[in-house]
Structure formats: structure tokens, C-alpha cells
Amino acid sequence: VSYSALEEHHRRIHQLDHACAILDWDQAVIMPERAGSARAESLSTLRGLRHELATEPRLLDLLDQGERERERGNLNDWQVANLREMSRQYRRAICVPRDLVEASSRAEAHSEQAWRVLRAQNDWNGFRPHLEEVVSLKRQTAAALSDALGCTAYDALVDGFEAGIGAAQIDVLFDDLRAFLPGFLERGLERQRLDQPVIPRGPFDTAAQKELGRSLMAAVGFDFSIGRLDVSHHPFCGGVPRDVRITTRYREDDFTSSLMGVLHETGHAKYEQGLPEAWLHQPVGVARGMATHESQSLFGEMLIARSPAFLQFAAQFIRDAFPVQTKEQPGAFEPRNLYLLSTRIRPGLIRVDADEVTYPSHVILRYEIERDLIAGKCEVKDIPELWESLLGELLGLSCRGNDKDGCMQDVHWPAGAFGYFPLYTVGALLAAQLHHAVQRDIPDLNQQIAGGEFGALDAWLRERIWSKASLLGFNELVIGATGEALNPIHFKQHLQRRYLDRVA
Ligand code: CO
Question: Which of 70, 230, 263, 362 would bridge 351 by S-S if both were Cys, CB 3.0 to 4.6 A apart?
């Protein structure tokens, strides 16, 4: 009885999340310019209601009674996991005092707004006090969560984005990559000098790019009856599992950035669309976390869409989309050239523009700084120096005096999202590990992909990842899907094959 009351309660919370997700999408995609302040009020009221529902005092009793139903053996595996997730969310929501929640939300909103202006002006000193305020409040929140959850402050923040993975595990994975990446980068750059792609010349009509993106989305299994593709300034995957909203942006001089971006977001979308129907409105029915999510987008983009097999399949779609350009430069649209084009290593200052070889270095840099920042081992004023020294060490680059493209480039810290960065690379490691496992299980996978057949691949992912939603913890999910704990060897071998051996 109590358990079913909990399900009913969480169904209502989910409906609010649904409405907020569509309002967020609308704000990023089609909202008129001056509607912003009214929208902000509406969203803040809905989020306030959500917080009230999520922290209702009667929930404590219901969760206790649900626990007794579990002890009596009245709940099945999914219900037990659902109760665990409800309880986890409740403990996270209840332990942070309301005035701290409000102060943080206000400070983060102001800091993000200030960041938009001050980043453009390269004004670190002007921005610093805003970030100091955000960090000070975040440390208080992390301390409260840490007491309630019995883990370190930083781990409590990571737990908010992906449960069951913490700094101890991340440190081991990243130390391994840290020892590998700088030397690999040098060898990869050396190797690619021998094999330069022809750069296709545009302009590439936006409508043709959109049609190309939509065709390939459909080919790889995106369900347009429960999803859309639109345009926004920063690409994302939003909405809810039965109404998924992905976005992209187009450049007329380069069709590959949008195309690969679309296939990345499609990876996120297929995970959402593949979540189990019966649990859609419950905490156990949502995607496991941000690392798992990124494993699905990077799997779709990096392991599949940028592979020779996929580009062999996609080449005809691309030629059909741009017949004039193909006639002028036929060699540029050959599968082999498209592959070289899609796998260029280009070390640079900007994380979101990074390739799969240099991306982890951008992440490790941010991870080491934010981990120490939350632990109180360094302060906001130290960030530019730490950034400069890690950037030199990991990528051989410098951004001294250019904080705009250094420590001010990302929205995460200004918006208070600490504990998120490492999950991008944890996701990349998992994507490579899943690819290794699926190739073992489907030996002719590359032939299937070259022929445009994605059914067996999707069935494999659906069974091991999508249909599991949040039934298992992160590490259990990884072991169940691949037969072993997260192991960076698969990512390193993938890079070796693709960038040094040039075979995959
Ligand atoms: Co992503």
C-alpha cells in the first residue's frame, strides 16, 4: 500500500519534470527574445513545486513503510530498485536546507549571467567574485550531502550526476590515461601527417544538411514519431523518453560538424527512447546517469558514426545531399576521405571542439582542479595558474592572458555544476568497452553497419543498457553489459587502432 502510494507520488513528480523539460527546450529553441523573464518565473515556480513534492514530510514515513514491505518480500526486483532510487533522491533533497538551496540557485543564476558578459570581455578578475560565491555555497551543499550520504564532499556532488562512482575510482582511471595520452598524442600527430584528407568545399546548404541529418537519424533508428530535430545555439538532447527533443546548429562551410553532432545527440536520444515503457514515470525508469548517457552518445558518434564501415554506408547519403560539391570534388566524398576527415586530431584550447584523442585531457584538467577546489585544497584565485600548468603538461598548449578560452570557456562552473566533468571521459571509456564487447558478440558488426543494418546492434544495447534504466548501479551495469569492470585498456586500444594502425 505504501509502496504504491510512493509510485503515485513519483508519477506526479515526473509529470512536472516533463512540463519543465519541454519549457526548457522551448526556451532554447523557439522562445521569443523578450519572453525570458516570464519563462524564468514560470519555471522557478514549477521547480519550487517539484522541490515541495520531493521533500514532503509524509515521504519519510512512506519510505519506512515501503522498506518494511520490501523486508516482507512483497516487492519485485524493479520495485526494490525503485524504492532505493526514491530513497536516494529523498535523502539528497532533504539534507540541504531550503535557504541554502535558494541562495545557491540565485548565486548560480547571477554568476551564469555575469559569465556570459565577462567571458566575452576576457575579464577573469570581474568574474572571480561571482565564482567565489558559487564555490563557497557549493562547498556548503557538498558538506551537507556528504554528512547525509556518508561519502566525501566531492563524491556527493558526482553522485548527483551518476550514482556509484567516486573520485577513488576516477583517480585510478584518469592516472592511467594521464600516463598514456601525452605520448600518444605526439605519435598520433606524427602518423596523421602522412595521411591528410581533402577538405570538402562548401557552401553546404542548411536545408540539405538538415535533410541529411534527418535521413541518417532515421537510418540508425531514431523514432521521429516520439522525437524531433531542431536548431539551438548549443546542441543538446532534451525532452522526455516519449518526446525526445534533440538540437544541432549548422555551418555552411562545414557539414561534418553538424552531422556528427546530430549523430552524437541521436545516441543520447536512442537511450531515452529505449528506456522501458513500464517504468517511464518512476525514478528507477530514468537513464542511469550522465556517464552512462555519454557512453551512448559517444558510442553512436565516435565508435560507430566515425568508423570506416559507417562512412562507407553514409557516403551515398552525403553525395546525394550535396550533388554539386560532389561533382566538383569527387575525391572529397569518398568513404576513405570522409573517414580521414572524421578522425583528425586537432589539439586546441576549446573542449567542445576537441577530438576524441585530446578530449580526455581537457576533462582531466578540469577534474583535478574542481576536485581540489571542493576539497578546499585550492581556491578560486588559483584557477588560472593551475589551468595554465595542466594545459602545458597535458596538451602542450598555453592560454596565458586568454582566460576567455581557458578557465572561463565552460558554463559548468559558473552554473554550479561541479562533479560533472569527469563523467564525459568515464562515458568515453565505457563506450569503447561496450564496442569491444559487442564486436565479440556480433563478429560481422562492421559488415552490418556498412550495409546500413543497425537492428542487431540496437538489440544488443537495448538488452544490456537501455532496458535496464536505473535498475542497477553504474558498476553493476558495466559488468553486466561487458563482463568486466570499467577498464581503460579498451579506450587506449581503440585509439591505437584508429590513430596509429589506421584500421578502425
Ligand atoms: Co553528449
Answer: 362
